[in-house]
Design a protein that fits this description.
single chain; 129 residues; mainly alpha; globular; binds protoporphyrin IX containing FE
Length: 129
């Protein structure tokens, strides 16, 4: 159907929950990224990323209801994000995307998701090192 959102086309809430769960499982064992997050809690961060991505791809707008305008570059200012952090983040995200089967993510949707993540991660870089 022409009006179907990307969110619906790739499997809706279940797909975004699986994607962010797998992403943070990778972050939890990444020595570059793990220290940037609170020691005792990755669940809050997982939930915020899940809500943001759902909203971005045409799903529920819970993120903005709770957090307001995303202003993601500003919200990442407290963290030093150089190319190492960007590449570590993308490594985790590529693993997470690869874990979603072709039954939910066909080649075109997979490409769109990967392209977006690469663009977004680059836009978060705020340090030359
Ligand atoms: C928050 C790291 C890229 C989306 C955070 C936080 C950290 C972080 C440490 C704080 C955890 C928290 O939510 O409490 C990084 C690093 C990146 C990166 C090292 C490397 C490039 C991205 C990208 C996106 C994103 C590309 C979106 C596609 C978010 C969102 C939040 C967040 C939605 C929560 C913002 C809020 O509402 O407070 N990130 N991030 N991040 N990040 Fe990233």
């Amino acid at each position: 159907e022409a009006s179907e959102t990307f969110y619906d086309a790739v499997g809706g809430a279940d797909t975004f929950a699986d994607l962010t769960r797998r992403f943070y499982a990778e972050v939890a064992r990444d020595e570059i990224l793990r220290p940037l997050y609170p020691e005792d809690d990755l669940e809050g961060a997982e939930r915020r990323l899940r809500m943001f991505l759902e909203q971005y791809w045409g799903g529920p707008r819970t993120y903005s209801d709770e957090r307001g305008h995303p202003r993601l570059r500003m919200r990442h200012q407290p963290f030093r994000i150089g190319v190492m952090e960007r590449d570590a983040w993308l490594r985790c995200m590529h693993t997470a995307i690869a874990s979603i089967g072709d039954d939910r993510l066909d080649a075109d949707h997979r490409r769109a998701l990967v392209d977006y993540m690469e663009m977004a991660a680059q836009s978060m870089v705020n340090s030359p090192l």
